[in-house]
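Anyone able to model this chain together with N-carbamimidoyl-L-glutamic acid?
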Amino acid sequence: MAAVSTTATDAIAAGAVATAQVQDQQHGQGHGREHHSDHQHAVHAQSLQQPPAGLRDNAPMHTPNTSIATRNARGWALPGIANLHSHAFQRAMAGLAERQTDPADSFWTWRETMYAMAARFDPDLLHAVASQLYVEMLEAGYTTVCEFHYLHHGPDGTPYAQADAMSQALLLAARDAGIRITLLPVLYMTGGFDGRPLSARQQRFGHSVDAYLRLLDTLRISEGDTVRIGCALHSLRAVPSDPMHEVLTALPAASRIHIHIAEQLPEVEECVALRGARPVEWLLDSVPVDARWTLVHATHLDDGEVQDIAGSGATVAICTTTEANLGDGLFPLRDYLDAGGRWGVGSDSNSSVDPVEELRWLEYGQRLRAQRRNIASSMRVPSVGSTLLNGAVASAADSTGFNQSDVIVLDADAAILAGATEGDVIDRWIFSGNRPLVRDVEVAGVRVVEDGRHRDREAIAARYREAMKVLLA
Ligand code: NGQ
Ligand code: ZN
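re: yes, here you go
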């Protein structure tokens, strides 16, 4: 093959193919060996409770085994990850808002582009886009999605003949994909802190308190093994104080409550101007926030708010990639961990659908700011990956309302995991790049992803392509 190359491009291409073939052969030959040495390492790590020899100089003498990874016949088993925040329809605009619309482009100009996309959806299109998204979530290792859903009515605000048609589309998408869903219908009443009415494009989001509570009642019939119905308040901007109290009083005691809280500085400033306190401060002073609450985008916090959220038992949903994409700001992770705060991750706008990227960039953002390394770690749990994953796993039940956990299995035969141990496999998964390593995913005992592929990947993708033709027409 190299012999017939006549141009530099051909030669380079031929070289690349030859290298790839060698790598394939090595990978193929290496299978048995890797398996064997994985096993040896696992035994070694268990008996000595020490990091691999090459790293011992820099490691504490007695590294406790805080890993939640275990080796089984199919690979490295880990708990499935809960995605604490998603707006499924926004998946359809991934990569389509990365162009200048104004020299001062911001969250607020992005929101106009997003509203234009939102206006095109109906229940069938939402079902097609959400089921594709949920397949991708499962293949990436998310086994539960908290869907923060506010596209309730027709584009002009007229309710659908079946008032919960859009919610049902999301429940159906979750069922098709086989993911657990905590559906969070959103209460959205005003266009800003000053109580201004919804704009034309926001009409389809709105409800009266009564209509909203009726929607929750209707949807609760669907609750079951893999479905929970919770409550979402869009934001303090969109929900005035009185209706907020009315809804909270009417909720069943176990209901989970999610809210967008302090994503952008202008909303913090507006809240101070109109409610006399910062958003988190106002919320914690106004209602009994506890472990049933998830605060999404608790990005802009002062020191007191960091302590108070941590003390409340609420979970913070950090949406690293969306917060980066929208230019929101960095969550004060180290201070919050020091305060003992609970947190998890969400894919939010779904411009990225991968817990690895959320967790990795959660840590990397902190490193870039602090100009230090290994921020989410401690002497007790030195592994950054374990600290991150343990945090996400610990908050999942409180945030989602599901007590059962699911299983994902990483491909122990992947070259990048050669020689992995219980003590390092999580770090190696999160900090080794972008090759998908999730081999199997089981939700409620059903294997929905096998060998990296969702059981209905093709059919659901075909329906998504048709939907995108309509959405982009
Ligand atoms: C949302 N998304 O509701 O989809 C919001 C934008 C808003 C994020 N905050 C709209 N990432 O907050 O008004
Ligand atoms: Zn959101």
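Residues 8-48 form the longest helix (41 residues).
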